[in-house]
Amino acid sequence: MDVMVSLGVDSARYRDILCEPTQAIGDAAYLLGFDSIIAPNARWSCNNLILFTDQIAPDDVEVIESSEVNWTEWRKKLK
């Protein structure tokens, strides 16, 4: 989050639906040739991996771990 703040993202409003600052960061990373970025999730205490799929070959992506999500159970836990 410190890096995002240094790039102009207001950490106090990060959970709001304010896409413009974060989209600008993503656009810049894409234009600089990055194939992905890692960014903090605005709603959960985790990170998101964002892949620029036209800058990375499908064979270069390796699934290390995978599990099925029961979305009905997941939603119940949130309530």
Please give a structural write-up:
The protein has 79 residues and is an alpha+beta fold. It has one domain (2-78). It is 33% helix and 13% strand. The radius of gyration is 15 Å and the shape is flat. The mean pLDDT is 85.
Notable traits:
single chain; 79 residues; alpha+beta; two-stranded antiparallel ribbon; 3 helices
Write the layout of secondary structure elements.
Layout (H helix, E strand, L loop, with lengths): L1 H5 L12 H13 L4 E5 L6 E5 L19 H8 L1
Antiparallel strand pairs: 1-2
Strand order in the sheet with the most strands: 1-2
Question: Uncertain segments of ≥5 residues (pLDDT<50)?
Answer: none
**What level of helicity do the residues show?**
25-40%
What is the average of the pLDDT values? 85
Order of helices and strands: HHEEH
Structural class: alpha+beta
Number of helices: 3
A few lines on this structure:
By secondary structure, this protein is an alpha+beta fold. It is built from 3 helices and 2 strands.
